[in-house]
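Design a sequence for this backbone.
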């Protein structure tokens, strides 16, 4: 067990790091943020901040010397320089290596029975034409690496769309468009002794590739598919020797769960766990990497809704506090409300699960 007062290093300085650091502070730990951007909403709530490029080996080495354990909140950290962190990194960098590449993660998950949408590697215009021919359209072309929140993705409705796309100078994957009834994620924590715990799966709604809202309870279709999806998640985590919170995203279809992607970290669709679960995803991630006993993950309310606050909406976010005394507002402290930027989230809860009406 990591002693109170120890320092947790976090690679990445965004809102996930901020909420991890807040959970770590509650458990008596200090956080040290490492990120290349001068503006870091995680550093705003942490004891220490190193602002340096991911590839700065000397600075990474010094950072590692100052931390007792190191984790990440951003999955696109270049993996090679992480050798400087030695065995302090948790989860292991092999989880990053797998999840950073859409092709690799699909093939990896397939090894444990996951069914992804039909997919093909695209490394040039001829590959794309062949992929559309084989898989059909509509489909989605995605860069294998560095995409998030719908960035690096192009919808393709037919061969003519394919001709119009200026292919990026990077490997892509073309995948068939899945006819899903709903989306959900499996969020799981795995301790250093291999114990696993799951949170209930929320029903996720996306717009333009970005999560908009997560609600509980999820539809019956999702609830019927969660067990199979959890089974895959547990096997993936075990094979990676994973420690901490891991997320796998699925489409619920008439033919069962279709695997979309995985994130080796806490996830936007688990933000509701801060108020809605006995222990939040952030706290359990910290508990796992610090080798503390994992907390209970049960859901505390009959209904829960988490809405992202995107772009300029944050300006009016406080209005909801007057309207709804049960609303839990989280603002991330980002200075610039650019369009499409996640500024915060709002969690609303219904009656407590034991049926007791809250006053
Ligand atoms: P991703 O970046 O892969 O998580 O995709 C973001 C969102 O785009 C997903 O949550 C879906 O709403 C949508 N999407 C991505 N891939 C597909 C697909 N193959 N079929 C249907 N919708 C998709």
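Sequence:
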């Amino acid at each position: 067990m990591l002693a109170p007062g120890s320092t947790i290093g976090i690679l990445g300085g965004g809102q996930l790091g901020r909420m991890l650091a807040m959970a770590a502070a509650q458990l008596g730990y200090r956080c040290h943020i490492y990120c290349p951007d001068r503006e870091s909403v995680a550093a705003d709530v942490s004891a220490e901040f190193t602002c340096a490029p991911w590839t700065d080996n000397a600075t990474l080495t010094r950072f590692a010397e100052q931390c007792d354990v190191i984790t990440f909140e951003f999955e696109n950290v270049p993996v090679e320089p992480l050798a400087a962190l030695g065995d302090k990194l948790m989860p292991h960098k092999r989880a990053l290596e797998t999840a950073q590449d859409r092709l690799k993660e699909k093939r990896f998950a397939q090894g444990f029975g996951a069914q992804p949408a039909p997919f093909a590697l695209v490394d040039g215009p001829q590959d794309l034409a062949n992929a559309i021919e084989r898989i059909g359209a509509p489909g989605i072309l995605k860069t294998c690496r560095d995409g998030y929140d719908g960035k690096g993705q192009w919808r393709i409705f037919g061969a003519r769309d394919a001709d119009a796309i200026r292919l990026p100078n990077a490997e892509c994957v073309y995948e068939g468009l899945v006819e899903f009834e709903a989306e959900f994620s499996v969020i799981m924590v795995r301790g250093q002794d291999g114990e696993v715990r799951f949170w209930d799966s929320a029903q996720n709604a996306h717009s333009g590739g970005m999560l908009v809202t997560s609600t509980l309870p999820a539809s019956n279709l999702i609830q019927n598919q969660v067990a199979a999806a959890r089974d895959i998640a547990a096997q993936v985590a075990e094979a990676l020797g994973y420690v901490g919170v891991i997320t796998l995203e699925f489409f619920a279809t008439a033919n069962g769960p279709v695997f979309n992607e995985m994130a080796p970290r806490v996830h936007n669709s688990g933000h509701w766990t801060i108020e809605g679960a006995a222990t939040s995803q952030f706290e359990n991630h910290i508990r796992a990497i610090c080798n503390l006993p994992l907390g209970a993950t049960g859901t505390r309310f009959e209904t829960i809704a988490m809405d992202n606050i995107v772009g300029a909406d944050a300006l009016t976010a406080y209005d909801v506090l007057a309207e709804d005394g049960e609303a839990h507002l989280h603002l991330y402290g980002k200075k610039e409300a650019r369009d499409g930027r996640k500024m915060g989230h709002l969690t609303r809860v219904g009656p407590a699960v034991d049926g007791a009406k809250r006053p």
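The radius of gyration is 20 Å.
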